[in-house]
Amino acid sequence: MLFYFSIVLNQEYERAVVFRLGGFDRVLGPGFNVIVPFLEWTQTVDYRIKAVNVNPQKVLTKDNVTVTVDAIVFYKVKRDAEEIKKAVLEVEDYNDVTVSYGQTMLRAIIGRKELDDILQNREEIADELRDDLDKTTNDFGIHIRDVEIQDVSIPDSMERSMAAEAEAERNRRAKLKEAEGELQAAVEMRAASDILGPGGYRLRTLETLDNVAQENSTIVTLPAELMPGNEDLGQGESPVQDLVNNVIENVDIGDLKKGLSEGSGDIEEQLDKLKEKED
Asked: Cα(119)–Cα(110) distance, rounded to whole angstroms?
């Protein structure tokens, strides 16, 4: 029994702090170690990385919104013998102290931030908490490896308000896209109108209506102003109207009436005479 209590066997990831008659004596490494029974006793320290939960903290943000935030802290005891000595001698329980510091600092950091900043920059908040916590725990041999913000909870009413705001923003962007599309279509239509001219543009309109009627077998009613020959087509005249005007300008109606009054009933002969006179 005496021999058993004089042997200390440490794993590779363990160190043992030896106390002799109540005072610190040394730190034992891994493997087989011997201590003096009754005069010495040990306290084992595990320096592997540990993960501890920071309980959810209900905090009032800078812009007066109540949020609940929780996190996970990853830490380890430093391997150096002096740091292991600090972890045992400087604090009663380095795990509880680390968690308590994490809770306090998390509340302080969240209280300095606005809600939008908390929701959008969770990684930056975690990094800030890690740095601040590492500086504090360094005094008793603890190294903070990482901090992760698990969850940020906000009141239900705030969630509904944020959802409505996000929906309004999506609608705004959709309307802007639609307006940009209409503007681009108007510009392209204007360019096509300049290239085709009024007559060509009208013809293209009729072709489009014709295609619609063919696909759906629908009777399409066209307003009169869309029909060729209307006064507003081109320069206000159709090709047929141009031909009529040309005939009126070149033919002397008075000569035609005179020839008819002389008793000539042969219309073709009278037209030939008019044609010879014109030549």
From this structure: 11
